[in-house]
Structures are given as structure tokens and as C-alpha cells.
């Protein structure tokens, strides 16, 4: 009998291997670099393709015949925004994939669990109280995300463990509670900031704070690597905490690592761009569907795929009704919500 | 050797296990029997450190269990329990390779070695699952899944096997196959097994040592002929039983004699 012939997951072989991981990640990385190049050329301001590509490939050392305005648009506005989209997407998808493994729930997602809202409250408090200190925002966002994570985890954990429904319910409670805090803090702001603030809450890269870009990129890359390095433990945790314990996983330690690293990922992305929803749901799902459930392959693939996904979504958001822009969160939710309904019906 | 010495385990005020002692020796299959709520599973769960005792000691090869790391305990003690519900698609091979986690050079990154694959293939063959190795766990029948859980435990190559009602949900032939595999592991590799079961006749047939538990205490330990007596079983289970010799193997055979049968 041919193995895997009856599998629902056509591309999934018997098991994940290093070779399969390298091939998948290599392909996704190439697609990501290509997407960065292509989307840099797209926007309300037309840039000459040849010159722009030449300048990008030279990493900005050669102006390649672009005017200095065009050069600035490319390197000061467009590229930073694309890179931030990559950082945000990579962070959220990685966080989603690891929450799903740890909580044994394909529906776990930073936005739906209220963790993004926790980070948003942290960011807002930083804005209100330490407005001038840019670095206070990711720090407070991290603290907010971590607190929200613990709250959801405690609420969801019944006597018989966290059922999928209970987890989502706990997420709803934390989300609504934090939303009321957000509304309260919003009333403390002056009226002119409220519109941009509402956009930010929905997930918006247009007001991207460029100062946070290096930090966001660094956290995304180190976070994704850190979680990938715990992928084997997460594989066993996906089978249940008791099984994982029996098989030699230090369950408590892994839980803390995932909570802290994922909160850093969510915190830095929310501080930079607000709560972009559903990335952590859509991307890991697609990664598992096409590559299998092994976290050694699905976490790094989700990181790269998430970056790709948000770059494309943000390009749509900033071009579809140009010169006006949509918040990128609106695009990701439009794609993510139907998938969520499908997954909920199936579980 | 894996030894529980005067172990007491408490859930709040209730003593689930009350100064119970147990010794698992290489090559020996030990069956743990007793009524519901006697503390059998709790005792089993404490042996690999999942439940902490309130008093008493657990010794793994004469060293206190607390001295070992989680990984090193898992390398020496494997557990077969009722499998938890799977929410992600995992192939049978991937599932069984989970047992090789303790052999990885680190707890994080890293891939299965040639030897890991070899061991997995061997245990898949032993448990008659080779043909299904590419299937998803969710596509297997209850019996096949339970065999996969045993295969994963065997793949750890642990010296001690703790089986918590491994034959529940299995039909007669699969019950015997599963326990034969456990016995074979004990005979050939000098492993030691503890089997919690409600099936007294299965215990009688496969176990070298039978431990009878009642209300948290190990009331009797010995071979099946010593433990499976009508008097002891009446005392512990409050059921009259008839004990005779199994016509083929000669081991004690226990038949409950319920009040309603008296009319015949």
C-alpha cells in the first residue's frame, strides 16, 4: 500500500526533514525578497522600475538615475514600511504558530486571544504617560502582552484543561475588558489624534514609527529563531501536556519561553503598527496545511510566510483606493475572518 | 529497579495513596489491580514524577527520583496512557518518533538520527503498524491508535514501562497482543513493566507479580496464586468469586459469582 496515499494533506510526507525545511524556507525567503523588490515599485508615486531596482539591489549606495525625491520615497518611505510589514507579519505569524502548539488549539491567535489588545493598552499608556520616549512603547506593549497572555491562560484553564471553546471565550473576555480600557484612555487624548489612533488600533503601517524598525526586525528574527529552537518540545506539547511531560519535555520551562518570546513578538509589532488581526491564524494554518504539523518546519515557514502575507496585504491596503489608504488590519481581517469561521465549524 | 517506598499521595484532605510500597524489577511484569478509586493510576503517575508524593520515597536505581532531570527520567521510564485527543494532523511515524525526543542531543532543535528512524521502524513492525506509518493518527481505529501509543513508549527504549489501563478499548485479541509485546520487552531486554488493569484474568495470565490495592494501600503483593484468592478478592472488591485453574495455562482464573446467579 502506498504510504500517505490516504492523507488529507497531499504534500505532507511521513515526516518533516531538515532537507524539506531548508527547501521550504529557501523558497519562501526567495519569494519574500522578490516581494520586497516588486512591492517597492508599487505605490501612488510611480517610480522608474529599472532605476528603482538598480538602487535597491545596490542597497542604496547608487542612485541609479533616480531623482533625489524618488530616491527618498524609495528608501525613506516605501522600503521602511515594507520592512516593517515584514517584521509585523513575521512576528504575528510566529507568535500564532507557537501559541497554537502550546495551547493545542489551531484557533489560538494573538489578536483573537486579546494579547494584541494587551499590547495596545501598554502602547497607549506609554503614549499618554511617556509620550517622548519612543522605546517605552515596545517595552510597555511587551508588558501588556505578557499580562494578557497570563490572564487568558489562567481563565482558559479549567479543571480538565483548556478546551478550544473555553480558550476563545477567555480571549473574548480579555479582549472586551481591554477594549473598554482602550476607550477610556482614548478619551484622555486630544481630538486631533483620535482618528490616527483609531486607524492604528485597526492595524496600520502608514504612520509607521521608523525609529522602531530596527528593533522590530531584530525581535522578529531572534524570536522566530528562539521558538524554532524549541520546536521539538512544541511538537510534543501539541499532543498534550501530560504526554509531553512523560516524553521528557520540561513543560513549565517551555511554557514560559513561549509566553515571553511571543509577548515580545506581539508587543514589538503592536507598538509599531497596532493590532493587525488574523495573521497568526491564517499563516500558520497554511504552513501546516502545505508542510505538515512539525513545528521545526511550520514555525520558520510561518515566520517567512507571515512577512510575505503582510507585505502583500499592506500593498493592497495602500494602493486599492490610492491616494487614500486602508488600514492593513482591514485587509488581513477580510481574509482571516472567513478562515476562522471555517476552522471553528470544523473543530 | 524502580521502587516506591511507603508512598503517600494526598488530594486535599483525601489520601489517594496511603503508605503504599511497590518494587519493579528487571524482567518482571507487575500488574496493579484494585477497585475504582483505589489509587492505582495515582500511584503509577507518581512513579515518573508527574504527581508529587506527600510522604515516602521513589527510588530510581537506588537514587531518589528528584535527583534526575526530566529528560533523564523520561529516558528510563516510559508511560503508556489513554491517548489524548489530537487536534493537529500528525502521522503515525511522527507520533512514534516522539518517543525518540529523549535521545536528541538537545531538547530544542535537531533532527532524528538514522538510529532514531531505525528504532521507530522496528517498533512499528513489532506493533504491526508498518503499513500505516504514513497515515494520520486521526485516521486510525481505536485499537491501532493504542498500539501507536505503545510503539511510542517502546521507541524510548526505557527500562521501565508504566501502562495505565493499556487494554481498555481493545478487543480480546489486541489485548493479548499488546501485553505479549510488553512481556517480550521484559524478557528480551530485561525491562520492567507496571500494568494497571481492571482485567484480573489478563493480569493473572501476563503478570509475574500482582499487587492488590484497596483504599490507597497495597494490601497484598505476590504471584497470581498468592494474591488472587476468593477471600482477598471478596475483601477488596466485595464480590464473591470462584477461582479455578485456567484449563490451558494453569494460572488462577477468576469468575465473579453474583447474587443473581444463585438461582441457577
What is the first-to-last residue Cα distance of chain A? 30 Å
Indicate the low-confidence ranges of chain A by residue numbers: 1-12
- For the record, the count of structural domains of chain A works out to 1
Helix content of chain A: over 70%
CATH topology of chain A: ABC transporter involved in vitamin B12 uptake, BtuC
Relative helix content of chain B: 25-40%
The greatest interface here is: A-B, 45 and 42 residues
Structural features, described:
The complex is a heterodimer of chains A (347) and B (264). By secondary structure, chain A is mostly helical. Chain A has one domain (35-346): ABC transporter involved in vitamin B12 uptake, BtuC. Helix content of chain A is 71%, strand content 0%. Chain A contains 14 helices and no strands. Chain A has helices at residues 18-41, 49-57, 68-102, 115-129, 136-156, 164-186, 191-201, 213-228, 231-237, 241-246, 251-273, 279-291, 295-319, 328-346. In chain A, helix 3 (68-102) runs parallel beside helix 8 and helix 5 crosses helix 11. The longest helix of chain A has 35 residues, at 68-102. Chain B is of the alpha/beta class. Chain B has one domain (2-228): P-loop containing nucleotide triphosphate hydrolases (Rossmann fold). The A-B interface holds A 1, 3-9, 12-18, 101, 104-106, 164, 228-233, 235-236, 238-240, 242-243, 245-250, 288, 292-294, 296, 347 and B 48, 50, 70-71, 73-75, 78-79, 81, 83-91, 93-95, 97-99, 101-102, 104, 107-112, 131, 133-136, 139, 152, 156.
Write the layout of secondary structure elements.
The complex is a heterodimer of chains A (347) and B (264).
Chain A: H1 18-41, H2 49-57, H3 68-102, H4 115-129, H5 136-156, H6 164-186, H7 191-201, H8 213-228, H9 231-237, H10 241-246, H11 251-273, H12 279-291, H13 295-319, H14 328-346
Chain B: E1 2-11, E2 14-24, E3 29-33, H1 40-46, E4 55-60, E5 63-64, H2 70-76, E6 77-80, H3 92-97, H4 114-126, H5 142-155, E7 160-164, H6 172-189, E8 192-196, H7 200-206, E9 209-214, E10 217-222, H8 224-227, H9 230-237, E11 241-245, E12 252-256
Parallel strand pairs in B: 3-8, 3-9, 6-7, 7-8
Antiparallel strand pairs in B: 1-2, 1-4, 4-5, 9-10, 11-12
Amino acid at each position: 500500500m502506498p504510504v500517505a496515499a490516504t492523507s488529507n494533506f497531499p504534500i505532507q510526507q511521513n515526516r518533516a526533514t531538515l532537507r524539506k525545511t531548508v527547501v521550504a524556507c529557501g523558497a519562501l525567503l526567495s519569494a519574500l525578497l522578490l516581494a520586497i523588490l516588486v512591492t517597492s515599485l508599487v505605490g501612488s508615486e510611480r517610480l522608474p522600475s529599472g532605476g528603482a531596482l538598480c538602487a535597491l539591489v545596490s542597497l542604496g549606495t547608487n542612485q541609479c538615475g533616480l531623482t533625489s525625491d524618488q530616491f527618498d520615497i524609495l528608501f525613506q518611505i516605501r522600503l521602511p514600511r515594507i520592512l516593517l510589514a515584514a517584521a509585523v507579519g513575521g512576528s504575528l505569524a510566529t507568535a500564532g504558530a507557537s501559541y497554537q502548539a502550546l495551547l493545542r488549539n489551531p484557533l489560538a491567535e494573538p489578536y483573537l486571544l486579546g494579547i494584541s489588545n494587551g499590547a495596545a493598552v501598554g502602547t497607549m499608556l506609554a503614549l499618554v504617560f511617556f509620550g517622548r520616549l519612543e522605546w517605552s512603547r515596545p517595552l510597555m506593549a511587551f508588558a501588556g502582552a505578557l499580562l494578557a497572555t497570563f490572564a487568558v491562560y489562567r481563565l482558559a484553564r479549567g479543571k480538565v484543561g483548556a478546551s478550544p471553546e473555553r480558550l476563545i471565550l477567555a480571549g473574548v473576555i480579555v479582549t472586551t475588558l481591554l477594549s473598554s480600557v482602550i476607550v477610556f484612555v482614548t478619551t484622555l487624548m486630544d481630538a486631533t489624534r483620535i482618528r490616527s489612533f483609531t486607524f492604528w488600533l485597526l492595524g496600520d503601517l502608514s504612520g509607521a514609527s521608523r525609529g522602531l524598525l530596527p528593533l522590530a526586525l531584530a525581535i522578529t528574527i531572534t524570536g522566530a529563531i528562539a521558538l524554532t529552537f524549541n520546536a521539538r518540545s512544541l511538537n510534543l506539547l501539541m499532543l498534550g501536556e501530560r504526554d509531553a511531560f512523560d516524553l521528557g519535555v520540561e513543560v513549565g520551562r517551555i511554557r514560559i519561553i513561549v509566553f515571553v518570546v511571543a509577548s515580545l513578538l506581539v508587543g514589538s509589532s503592536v507598538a509599531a503598527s497596532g493590532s493587525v488581526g488574523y495573521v497568526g491564524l491564517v499563516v500558520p494554518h497554511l504552513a501546516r496545511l502545505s508542510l505538515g504539523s512539525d513545528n521545526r518546519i511550520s514555525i520558520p515557514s510561518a515566520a517567512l510566510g507571515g512577512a510575505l502575507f503582510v507585505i502583500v496585504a499592506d500593498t493592497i491596503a495602500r494602493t486599492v483606493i490610492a491616494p487614500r489608504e486602508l488600514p492593513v488590519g482591514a485587509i488581513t481581517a477580510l481574509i482571516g475572518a472567513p478562515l476562522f469561521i471555517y476552522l471553528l465549524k470544523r473543530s | 529497579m524502580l521502587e516506591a517506598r511507603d508512598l503517600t499521595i494526598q488530594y486535599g484532605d483525601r489520601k489517594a495513596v496511603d503508605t503504599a510500597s511497590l518494587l519493579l524489577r528487571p524482567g518482571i511484569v507487575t500488574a496493579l489491580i484494585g477497585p475504582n478509586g483505589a489509587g492505582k493510576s495515582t500511584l503509577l503517575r507518581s512513579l515518573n514524577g508527574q504527581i508529587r508524593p506527600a510522604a515516602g520515597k521513589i527510588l530510581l536505581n537506588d537514587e531518589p527520583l528528584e535527583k534526575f532531570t526530566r529528560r533523564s527520567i523520561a529516558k528510563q521510564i516510559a508511560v503508556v496512557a489513554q491517548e489524548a485527543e489530537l487536534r493537529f494532523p500528525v502521522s503515525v511515524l511522527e507520533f512514534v518518533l516522539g518517543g525518540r525526543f529523549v535521545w536528541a542531543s538537545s531538547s530544542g532543535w535537531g533532527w532524528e538520527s538514522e538510529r532514531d528512524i531505525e528504532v521507530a521502524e522496528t517498533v512499528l513492525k513489532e506493533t504491526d503498524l508498518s503499513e500505516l506509518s504514513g497515515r494520520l493518527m486521526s485516521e486510525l481505529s481505536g485499537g491501532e491508535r493504542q498500539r501507536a501509543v505503545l510503539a511510542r513508549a517502546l521507541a524510548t527504549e526505557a527500562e521501565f514501562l508504566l501502562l495505565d489501563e493499556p487494554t481498555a478499548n481493545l478487543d480480546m485479541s489486541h489485548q493479548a497482543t499488546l501485553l505479549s509485546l510488553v512481556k517480550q520487552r521484559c524478557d528480551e531486554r530485561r525491562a520492567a513493566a507496571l500494568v494497571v488493569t481492571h482485567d484480573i484474568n489478563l493480569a493473572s495470565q501476563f503478570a509475574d507479580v500482582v499487587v492488590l490495592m484497596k483504599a490507597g494501600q497495597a494490601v497484598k503483593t505476590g504471584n497470581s496464586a498468592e494474591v488472587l484468592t476468593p477471600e482477598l478478592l471478596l475483601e477488596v472488591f466485595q464480590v464473591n468469586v470462584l477461582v479455578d485453574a485456567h484449563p490451558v495455562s494453569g494460572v488462577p482464573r477468576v469468575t465473579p459469582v453474583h447474587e443473581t446467579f444463585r438461582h441457577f
